[in-house]
């Protein structure tokens, strides 16, 4: 209810005001990127270099794109009304959805909160995000950051809410009256989310895990391919949305590929 009331106010905000909010968040990320990386690494187990790339850099790029391109793609678009309706005008308008829900995993604690946050705030929505029970500690820090950013631009304080808990909390979010929901996680839980949302015809967007194939052709340059393969397998300890899980290597270069992979893999170490 609090998020819905806040959203009604925020929906009337200008794109300039929404850009101002994103710029505040952007400045914070730039100034506190070392802290963000340490917090994310401690809560997910990833090395700091992975945090810098997967948490900070990616989030900043999405903010940059929204500030530069977002308004253009949310403006009304005119369409042809056709010969039969020549006396009418047709256009497509984009209105805020309302209160968006998001259920996100633990592998990118910072990005997985701020990814739906920046997009929905720029679109005029409110957001209730349920973080993973495996990454709840860092969400307290992020929550304070979000509250401070909203206050800095005069946005409603209840516009973004973070909730924690197990499956029951996620189910409560799905069935609690959000206008749309985004889920990122396993195929099994994705089915349960879709089933629960179907009872109220709540639209859902599902980003589910898979068995991503990595194909190495006979003419591949192994000096280029092997580092990419290693990154696909080991980035964020393999907990990555685009992580390679199946490797298909042409028989002509299989042995050379394997030798190069083993040589590099043996030099990897765990830790920061």
Provide structural commentary.
There is one protein chain. 52% of the residues lie in helices and 14% in strands. It is of the alpha/beta class. The protein has a five-stranded parallel β-sheet, with helices on both faces. Strands 1-2 form a two-stranded antiparallel sheet. A two-stranded parallel sheet has the order 8-9. The longest helix has 27 residues, at 48-74.
Detail the topology: elements first, then pairings.
Elements: H1 2-10, H2 15-31, H3 33-44, H4 48-74, E1 77-79, E2 90-92, E3 99-103, H5 111-123, E4 126-130, H6 136-153, E5 160-163, H7 167-175, E6 180-185, H8 187-198, E7 204-208, E8 213-216, H9 222-234, E9 246-249, H10 254-265
Parallel strand pairs: 3-4, 3-6, 4-5, 6-7, 8-9
Antiparallel strand pairs: 1-2
Helix pairs in contact: 2-4, 2-5, 2-6, 3-4, 3-6, 4-5, 9-10
Shape: globular
* Overall strand count: 9
Please identify the structural class as seen in this structure.
Answer: alpha/beta
The percentage helix is 40-55%
Q: Could you spell the SSE succession in H and E letters?
A: HHHHEEEHEHEHEHEEHEH
Radius of gyration: 22 Å
Largest sheet: 5 strands, parallel
- Strand percentage lies at 5-15%
Sequence of strands across the biggest β-sheet = 5-4-3-6-7
Low-confidence stretches: none
Output mean pLDDT. 93
Please report the distance between the alpha carbons of the first and last residues. Answer: 42 Å
Report the total helices: 10
């Amino acid at each position: 209810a609090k998020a819905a009331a806040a959203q009604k106010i925020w929906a009337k905000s200008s794109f300039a005001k929404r850009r101002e909010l994103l710029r505040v968040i952007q400045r914070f990320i730039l100034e506190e990127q070392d802290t963000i990386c340490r917090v994310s690494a401690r809560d997910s187990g990833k090395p700091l270099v992975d945090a810098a790339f997967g948490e900070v850099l990616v989030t900043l790029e999405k903010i940059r794109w929204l500030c530069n391109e977002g308004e253009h793609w949310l403006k009304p678009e005119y369409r042809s009304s056709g010969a039969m309706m020549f006396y009418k005008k047709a256009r497509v308008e984009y209105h805020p959805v309302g209160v968006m829900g998001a259920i996100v995993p633990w592998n990118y604690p910072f990005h997985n909160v701020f990814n739906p946050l920046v997009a929905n705030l720029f679109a005029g929505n409110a957001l209730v995000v349920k973080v993973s029970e495996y990454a709840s500690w860092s969400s307290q820090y992020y929550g304070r950051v979000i509250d401070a950013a909203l206050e800095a631009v005069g946005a409603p304080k209840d516009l973004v809410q973070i909730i924690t808990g197990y499956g029951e909390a996620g189910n409560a979010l799905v069935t609690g009256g959000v206008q749309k929901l985004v889920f990122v996680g396993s195929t099994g839980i994705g089915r349960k989310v879709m089933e629960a949302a179907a009872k109220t015809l709540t639209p859902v967007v599902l980003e589910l895990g898979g068995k991503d194939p990595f194909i190495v052709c006979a003419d591949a340059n192994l000096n280029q391919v092997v580092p990419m393969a290693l990154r696909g397998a080991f980035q964020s300890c393999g907990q990555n949305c685009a992580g390679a899980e199946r490797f298909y290597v042409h028989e002509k270069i299989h042995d050379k590929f394997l030798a190069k992979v083993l040589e590099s893999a043996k030099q990897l170490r765990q830790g920061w």
